[in-house]
């Protein structure tokens, strides 16, 4: 029997460790088994062993294809490996309930038959050389990367070939791996524990290894550095363009004063946009985008790639932002569901036109050789501002700095009304570093924590207009809408509506409003917002929105629910003109107040 070379190891060692791992559940026991395995693994292949434990062939962001061997293919491969009909595999599967155990059973039967016919001495493993980790890993890699015509047959042949060489125990785990059902109960944290004990002398090395992993989210690669060069080699690990950094996460709180206290009295408050987090890496002309879960999502956002190429003034940089669907005519935020609509589409360039996006940047983690994760937020912010070349769709997240809870609430309400889901409050003291991979109180999210729906439409009067941005620059694209207050006989603003118009509606906008344009706000209009152009209250439109919200910007029912806030509509959409209605027939402020109260009651009932 040929021995596995020094830089390799029999796969049976891994299979045995998997079997032991399956039998225990306490983290300390799992760690002991992993330490033993890691210590006996040649350092140059420890990355492969780590990936196998994770049930992967590479970190997700590398985009190695799935193995692509479904249950049916696997049954064919097992039947082929052990020369039995597929019906036998299927019936065993029914009784044993797990294809891994089926393969194990059939391998054992084959082994027994061989022993009988060839005699004990001639038999070793599957009859030839024992499988090595490298052979198993590389073959599985070939299975995953086999694509296109004939790949189905090739995948079956490769898996069957591996199984025919595997011992019963090895066969069980190979099958479970292929099926994605390894389930060893070992998380990343336990692997980190074991690496610290195996190569760092104990738990004191854990934070160094973990920090390196947080900065370069590739557990196999980190394991290999520490196994080959020791823990000290990890102390210099910095973010690397092209390798995702594990994201910093926020705690959650709903009391504004308490939130500010927790961040040290004063904080940076930013809109919390409702889209997809993007960690954007720029390396010269190359751009990579990683999701919150560190998947490579670059191919979904060719537009963001272009924005990053043009909008980052650095050779190499890593920035973070939220990618949000926007209305191309008004650049207003659109709900998260719209972004999902884009993600479901296959023709990316079509999807890009239908659901355009903007990026709201909130952090920078690396800039031309410098690791910025260790710098406090104000310094990172300065760097971000220096590096970003803003455009309409590539800007820094809307923000204020405050130590005042009332100001925080006011900004929060404005964020909601603008289509954000709340605010992020971030510490700005000297210890406000970027805590990669951690959820902590340096960032606190303050969100609406209810879900409600606006069921009825309302009829509102157009009292002003705004010129469009983006695709419709210079033309009226958004209307300032008001409710009627019979007590004062005035029109009080409720929302700005820029969505729901057809192209034809938009093209006719100037013509429709021409007769009503006046040089300044109409005396019967009560507004805190300055419109680009004012109208005589005349045109009534039917509007629906996601929900009624409070807003510091609107005068409808100002102070009725909360001091300093009026009632507004989140994500308002135009439905149609109601030319059959006079402005005084519009929905009244009192009706809106009742609707708001009903909505609150419904939320309370849900809770
Ligand atoms: P949630 O369910 O609230 O999105 P989460 O568990 O996905 O929470 P959290 O850390 O709790 O993640 O919330 C932060 C998320 O909010 C980020 O991952 C990011 O996608 C998003 N986000 C939006 N705006 C900002 C901002 N200005 N700063 C940081 N994160 C932001």
Q: Could you list some keywords that capture this structure?
A:
607 residues, 20 helices, 6-stranded mixed β-sheet, DNA ligase i, domain 1, D-amino Acid Aminotransferase, Chain A, domain 1, 4 domains
Describe the structure in your own words.
- With 607 residues, this protein is of the alpha+beta class.
- The chain folds into four domains: 11-179, Orthogonal Bundle (DNA ligase i, domain 1), CATH 1.10.3260.10; 188-236; 249-447, DNA ligase/mRNA capping enzyme (D-amino Acid Aminotransferase, Chain A, domain 1); 458-606, Nucleic acid-binding proteins (OB fold (Dihydrolipoamide Acetyltransferase, E2P), Beta Barrel).
- It is 39% helix and 20% strand.
- The protein has 20 helices and 21 strands.
- Strands 12, 13, 14, 15, 16, 17, 18 and 21 form an eight-stranded mixed β-sheet that branches. Strands 3, 4, 5, 6, 7 and 8 form a six-stranded mixed β-sheet that branches.
- Strand 6 (357-367) and strand 7 (370-371) form a beta hairpin.
- The longest helix is centred in the first third of the chain and has 20 residues, at 99-118.
- It is elongated.
- It starts with 10 loop residues before the first helix and ends with a helix.
- Adenosine-5'-triphosphate is lined by residues 247, 249-250, 270, 272-273, 277, 292, 322, 362, 397, 424, 445.
What general form does the structure show?
Answer: elongated
Number of strands: 21
Please give the count of helices: 20
CATH superfamily of the largest domain: DNA ligase/mRNA capping enzyme
Between the first and last Cα atoms, what is the distance in angstroms? 68 Å
Cα Rg: 31 Å
**Named CATH topology of the largest domain:** D-amino Acid Aminotransferase, Chain A, domain 1
Helix vs. strand class: alpha+beta
